[in-house]
Amino acid sequence: MGLRRNYEFWAVALVLILSTCTAQLSSTFYDSTCPNALSTIRTSIRTAVSKERRMAASLIRLHFHDCFVQGCDASLLLEDSDSIVSEKSALQNSGSIRGENVIEDAKAKVESICPGVVSCADILAVAARDASVAVGGPSWTVTLGRRDSTTASKSEAETDLPLFTATLQQLIALFDRKGLTARDMVALSGSHTIGQAQCGFFRARIYNNQSDIDANFARTRQRRCPSTASSQADSTLAPLDLVTPNSFDNNYFRNLIQKKGLLASDQILFSGDSTDSIVNEYSKSPSTFSSDFASAMIKMGDIQPLTGSAGVIRKICSSLS
Mean pLDDT, the chain, as a whole number? Predict the structure, then answer.
C-alpha cells in the first residue's frame, strides 16, 4: 500500500509539473480578468505611433530583442539594479533600444483598470502587432498568458541577438536555435521596411567600395554619414528604406535586389546564396510577405514564455519592486 501511495503521489506530481511546463498561451486569456486590456493597449500604441511613425519599428524591435533572450518574458525592459545587469547594455541594444516609455505608458493605463493582471511580456507582444497595423502592416492574433521574468541576461543578449555584421550562415543558425526557419528570418527582417539605423552601424558598408552596394545609393548615404567616426556622427540616423520609410510594405526586398540594403546584415539576405529566392518572392508578392511576416511574428512570440505559476506580473515593467 505504501509503495502504491508513493507511486500515486509522484504520478500526480509529474502531471502537475508537465501541465505547468506545457501551459498554452491563449488569445482569450484576459477575456474575463481584464476584458478591456487589448483595446487599452491599442489606443496607447496608436497614439504613440501617430506622434512618431518611427516608433512602430522601435516597438516591433523591442518584442524581437526581448523574445530572443530568455524567451518572451520582458527581461529586456528591466533596468540595472542590485540584482539585475540590464540587457539594454549589450552591444546589440546599447543606444539603440527605444520605445520602453510607450510600453510603460500602456502598462500604467492597463494597471489602472486591472491591477496586477496583464504582464509586460504580453504588452510587448500586443504592442508589436498594433504597431504593425498602425503603419499599414499585417495584423495577427496574439496569444496571451506570458508572465514576466525576475531575471535578465546581458551575456545571453550578446550571444543570441544578431549583429549588423553577421554572415548569412550565422543568422540562419541563430534563428534556428530559436525554432525559426530561414524563411521566418527573411520575413522578420522585412520589418526593416520601416525605421532607421545609426550611421555607426552602416558606415563601413557605404565606404567599402564593394560590389554588393549600389554606388549612387552609397554616395547618397555618405552625405549624412561621414567616413570619420565621432559620437555625433555615429548617432546620425538614416531610413532603412529610402523609398517608403514610414510605410510597411515590400520595398525593403526590392531594395536588396538593387543592392540598396542599408545594413550589411540586410544585404547578406540577397547575396547569391540560399535566401535569394525568398527575397525575390517577397519583392514580387506583398501579400506573401505580409502573410509570412505575421506567421513568423506568431512563432517568435511563442519562444519560451513563462506561464502558469512561473515568473511574476510586474507592476512597473522596468523594475521588480
Answer: 92
